[in-house]
Amino acid sequence: MQILNTSYNFLQEYFTYSQALLQTAQTKVFNLAKQVEATAKELLQTTVDCKKNVVEFFNSFHHPHDESRQTLKKKRALLCSKPWSALNDAAYFQQNEALEVLLRIHGVNQKEGDPGTEEGTGDESTALHAAALSGNLDGAQILIAHGAKINATEMRGQSPLHWAARSGHTSLVHLLYAAGANIDLPDLRGKTALRLAAKRGHLETCIALITLGAQVNIQDVKGQTPYFCAMLHGHIRVAKHLFNFGADETLVTKAGKVASQVIGRANWFAFIRSFFEHKLPVVLSSANRTKLHSNLVRLPLY
What we know:
By secondary structure, the protein is mostly helical. The protein folds into 2 domains: about 50-180, Ankyrin repeat-containing domain (Serine Threonine Protein Phosphatase 5, Tetratricopeptide repeat, Alpha Horseshoe), CATH 1.25.40.20; about 190-300, Serine Threonine Protein Phosphatase 5, Tetratricopeptide repeat (Alpha Horseshoe). It is built from 14 helices and no strands. Helix 3 runs antiparallel to helix 4, helix 5 (about 125-135) packs antiparallel against helix 6 and helix 9 packs antiparallel against helix 10. The radius of gyration is 35 Å and the shape is rod-shaped. Mean pLDDT is about 75; it is low at about 60-65, about 115-120 and about 285-300.
C-alpha cells in the first residue's frame, strides 16, 4: 500500500511538472509565432514601400508630366511608334541619374528588341540613339564613357549621328564625331547625317558636318543629294551654304530631276522670292523651262 501511495505521488508530481513544461512551451511557441508574424509584417511593409519607391522612380521618366517632357514624348512618337525600355527612356528624357543606375543593370549596348527587353516591340535603337534624338549631351557622355557603340545602327540603318543631325543637335554631332562616329555613314536608303540635317533645315548642323569632313555631293538610293533635299523642302539658306561648300546643282536624280526643278509645295512662293534674294543658280531643263518658270507665270499679281 505504501508503494502504491509513493507511485501515485510521483506520477502526480510528474503530471504537474509536465503540465508546467507544456504551458511554458506553449507560451514560448506563441511568443515566437508573434515575433515571426511581426517580422513578416515588417518585411511586407518594407517590400510595399520599396515597390512604391521603384514605381515612382521609373514613373519619373516613363510618365513625364511637365510641358518640356511632353514635347519630347510627342517628338519621340513621331520616330518610334513602339514603347522603349527604361534605359532608352532615361537617356531620352534626360534622367541621367536613373541612366547610370540602369546601365549597371542592363549594360550600355543593349538594343530595343534584344533579349532582356519585350521581344518584338523594339526598333533596335540603343540608349545612345535616344540621347542623340533628345539632345541629351550629358547622357551621351555617360553612355560613351560606359563603352557605347558609336556607330551602332537601328532598323533603318541609322546611327546616333543620324539621329542627332536630324534633330539639329550640333553639340552632339561634335561629341559623336570626336568619339569615332562615321561622318558619311549611309543608312539603308543611302541617307547620310548631312542629308537628314539638310532636309530639316538645320543650318548650323549642316555647317558643322561639312566642317568635320562630310561629303556634300553624296547621293542616296534615289539620287538625291543634301543640296537637292534642301531645295525640295524650301530651306534656301541651307541650300545656299551647301552650294558655297561645293554642292553640285547639276547632279540628276533617278527621277531625272535637278535641284532647281523642285520646290517644296508648302514653301514655293517663299522659295521663288529667295531665288532672287540669294541668287541661286537655275539649271534649264531639256525644254528650256524650269519649275521656277512654271511657277512664275502663276504668281498672283497683288
